[in-house]
Amino acid sequence: xxxxxxxxxxxxxxxxxxxxxxxxxxxxxxxxxxxxxxxxxxxxxxxxxxxxxxxxxxxxxxxxxxxxxxxxxxxxxxxxxxxxxxxxxxxxxxxxxxxxxxxxxxxxxxxxxxxxxxxxxxxxxxxxxxxxxxxxxxxxxxxxxxxxxxxxxxxxxxxxxxxxxxxxxxxxxxxxxxxxxxxxxxxxxxxxxxxxxxxxxxxxxxxxxxxxxxxxxxxxxxxxxxxxxxxxxxxxxxxxxxxx
Length: 244
Description:
By secondary structure, this protein is α+β, with helices and mostly antiparallel strands. It has one domain: SMI1/KNR4-like. It has ten helices and nine strands. The strands form two sheets. The protein has a seven-stranded antiparallel sheet. A two-stranded antiparallel sheet has the order 8-9. Helix 3 (36-46) runs antiparallel to helix 4 (53-60). The radius of gyration is 17 Å and the shape is globular.
């Protein structure tokens, strides 16, 4: 396990570049301030350097609401968390004491973000045959709430985050947003999502998404429902979707 100094004291730290991307994003981005001690502890447990976008985001950010809050990207515990944004550590169930369990790693990959519909973004953590996820180690994969299945995205964390911040949400969520969604989504806290009826994976919802009824629920409730439904529909448990 690398010491904190090895993770922080690096050449070419990524935060200046990433910070500029966050400030210049064409979509609305709200970045929460990081708790300094919590950020350092999370970085130490995550074991990535601040040369990476992931390490820089974890250390210097308490998470971010991207595109009016449609996407929630997780970082360190927030210094002032009145928006109830979960931390990366909480979402992934990090042990409280890193020294007591230095060998702990996420079982399949690192959950780095959720969207308001219950979509899950994971940084794949090992060979597909071992972790049960598509893609390669270090590749971003997505659990889609409209299909209840996993898809490999063909990019790492840095490229994925850059794409989301540059307006990629519009392309990625084409057909999954309805007129006026911004007014419904931007007021939600980081631990809340939307459940749709008829459900998002149904033919009825896809025929007329605007006609669905939408209800605010906890993200934990939404993820549990998706996991149980996914396992029931195709008899394959999608696995860990995060502790939100």
